[in-house]
Amino acid sequence: MLRVVLLHRLVTYPRTAFLALLLGACVLFTVVRAFATEPLISFIQPFGTNQVLVHFDTDANRTYELQFINSLPAGAGNDWSNLFVVNPLPGPDHFIVPDTCTTPQRFYRLRVTP
Amino acid sequence: MFSKRTRRLNERHFALAAALSLALAGRATGCDLCAIYGASSARGESSSGFIFSVSEQYIPFRTPQLNGGEVSPVNPDYLDRSITHLVPGYNFSPRFGLSLNVPLEYRSFRRTDVRYSLTAPPVFFTEQGTDFDLGDVALIGRFAVVQKNTMNYGVVVNLLGGVKFPTGKTGRIKDEVEQTEIFESFLPPGTPHDPLGHSVAGIHEHELSPGSSSFDGIFGLTLNSRWHRWFLNSQFQYYLRTAGESDFQFGNELIVSGGPGAYLFLKPAFTLSLQANATYEAKSRDQILGQVSDRTGWVAWYLGPQLALTIGEHLSANAGVDIPLTIANNGFQNVPDYVLHAGFAWRF
């Protein structure tokens, strides 16, 4: 009965229908955003004598770029470089990227699109 | 967890089926019932002597699934596998026979995966190619515990048992286990992980391996029953796996199949029957380095028609297709679009 009343109102009042659709779209967008986790480097650990391991999780259908730079700030020829790229995969996964320590310091970041 | 696709009847499953096809050497005589009797009798291996059969199975694994749901990767993997089984056999008596299953496997594939290294960042790579190899040979014995055949009805129950020998190449499995070892060396001790956590492919390396380097047990039971033109056939198969190459252990497998059928044509020179064949298949998860992988194993249902033909007293043939109904696969795997199988047998 409630469904019939709602349907009747949506048909009778187009403005109400539009607002209801807008509200629904906003809720859907919020839910989708909530399920797509932010890119995060889980941890970086020493490995062997001169290496580190960079751990990170990935979501489905997104591209991840693990980048590094030897000094901050970036710019003026000092740019972030790709160390490893994960193309879109059908499911979530976990990656571990070994990197050799050739400089006294190195910074890492994880870019994700979309 | 279920989808519209299902998983393969692989080379190992087919070993018994190929052996069973030895029973299809038929004969046809004067009347309808005589023809039925002759064909049914042939299925029950009611004679002694040499039999040789050739069976073919073709499966395209082109449907990627994640935990039972179909997904659409950007650059999907595929595997088209064709296995030809050459099966010479000998029936020492109507009740007891032995057969040797020699599988020849052809694979056409493409897969994209990650390759880990101890010294450098991992690399995404795509490999594409074809392989042709000898698979694992199996020796299978048959003992008929019930053999009752009359003009009007018949019941035959066979027990089957055998061993699969490590005759196929296993370089792919060795490489996959090495990748597991590298990946595990990166993890802090005690970190929960899947032993195939290094792989992002829908076609894993062990699925491209023609052999397993293991001695596996094969057990089966067949029931063939007939009443006039109608019949009901069923098969029970169980594959007991042991550890093989680099301690990789394929999961045990249970297959139950069968269904009702009828003789469509009954001529003095030939018989033709049609059966509705349903198949249930449960494959346990594989073990790598003693750890169970949640990216392997499945439960699947198939349904399809199967034709069986007998010509004269020596030649029989069969052909069928298994259409996937559902599958509950674990993790990300490619599953079959369908399964085609056909074969013929000649009784000397």
Molecular structure report:
The complex is a heterodimer of chains A (114) and B (348). Chain A is 29% helix and 38% strand. Chain A has 2 helices and 6 strands; from the N terminus they run H-H-E-E-E-E-E-E. In chain A, strands 1-2-5 form a 3-stranded antiparallel β-sheet, with no helix packed on it. In chain A, strands 4-3-6 form a 3-stranded antiparallel β-sheet, with no helix packed on it. In chain A, a hairpin with a 3-residue loop joins strand 1 and strand 2 (51-58). Chain A is elongated and about 75 Å long. Chain B is mainly β and 348 residues long. Chain B contains 3 helices and 17 strands. Chain B is elongated. The interface between A and B is medium-sized, with 23 and 26 residues.
SSE order and pairing:
The complex is a heterodimer of chains A (114) and B (348).
Chain A: H1 2-12, H2 14-35, E1 41-47, E2 51-58, E3 63-69, E4 81-86, E5 93-100, E6 107-113
Antiparallel strand pairs in A: 1-2, 2-5, 3-4, 3-6
Helix pairs in contact in A: 1-2
Chain B: H1 11-20, H2 32-43, E1 49-66, E2 69-70, E3 78-91, E4 96-115, E5 123-134, E6 138-149, E7 153-164, H3 171-186, E8 216-227, E9 230-240, E10 253-266, E11 270-283, E12 287-288, E13 291-292, E14 298-311, E15 315-329, E16 332-336, E17 339-347
Antiparallel strand pairs in B: 1-2, 1-3, 1-16, 1-17, 3-4, 4-5, 4-6, 6-7, 7-8, 8-9, 9-10, 10-11, 11-14, 12-13, 14-15, 15-17
Q: How many structurally independent domains of chain B?
A: 1
Helix proportion of chain A? 25-40%
| Low-confidence residue ranges of chain A | 1-7
How confident is the prediction overall: mean pLDDT of chain A?
Answer: 79
Order of helices and strands of chain A: HHEEEEEE
Shape of chain A: elongated
Query: Which radius of gyration of chain A do the C-alpha atoms yield?
Result: 23 Å
CATH class identity of chain B: Mainly Beta
> Looking at the structure, what is the overall shape of chain B?
elongated
How many structural domains in the coordinates of chain A?
2
CATH architecture annotation name of chain B: Beta Barrel
The largest sheet of chain B is: 12 strands, antiparallel, barrel
Q: CATH topology of the largest domain in chain A, what is it called?
A: Immunoglobulin-like
Measured between the Cα atoms of the first and last residue of chain A, the distance is 42 Å
